[in-house]
Amino acid sequence: MMSTSSRKIAVVTGASSGIGAVYADRLAKRGYDLVLVARRADRLQALAAGITSAHGVRVETLAADLETDAGLASVEHVLANNPAVAVLVNNAGLARLAPVAVSPVQDSLSQIALNITALTRLTHAALPAMKARNEGLIINIASVLGLHTLPFSAVYSGSKAYVVAFSRGLQQELAESGVKVQLVLPAATATEVWDKSGVPLSALDPATVMPTDAMVDAALVALDQGEQLTMPSVADADAIVRYEALRQELFGMSQTGKVAPRLLAV
Fold it and tell me: Residues 144, 163: contact at Cβ < 8 Å?
């Protein structure tokens, strides 16, 4: 799969619906050709036809199950070998919201495979070429539940906490380069992820649910403004700064070989 267009390419995973589909539309509107990745080939083809008609860009589709080695390998090949790839949107994700004690282990393993392993492998595939060109953008879609855990979100929150830590580390690693990483932490967003999550969208307070297009548009405004960590539903930007500062302060306080006085044996 090698585009013959002179335009830069954005690769979007989980593109057949929801957040991924909106990112695909918005990036096409910004002039990117696209490679759209998801399991459902029919949905991808319909989306591609609509985007091509609306924006006049070249759109290729790649039906791939990113929980499988074969599916990941097919996308890795594109990322590693197509020099036109300028953007990777790691959006594909899975939520299974239930207490661990009553959940099938496969539900946990599936979330880890898609939310952690796939994101990590695709980033590994894209990064060397981006670094060599000293240009590129990786957008990692995490969740506010990467900062907070509920009684039924232990695995999902854990997987998204990995995305947060992984992305923050990459940002520091790439700070002196032309490769950028944006970490996006949506709150409840109106997507199909809820359908099989165990918590239907209808169970949520509608006032807490953001429309998908609004979430993506806000994240792209934040990207244009240079934000590295974006929480589209948080109005107080200073709160995010204070959170980050306190996190770093707490880490700094841990850097001693002395036991905390409260923990000394009496």
Answer: no
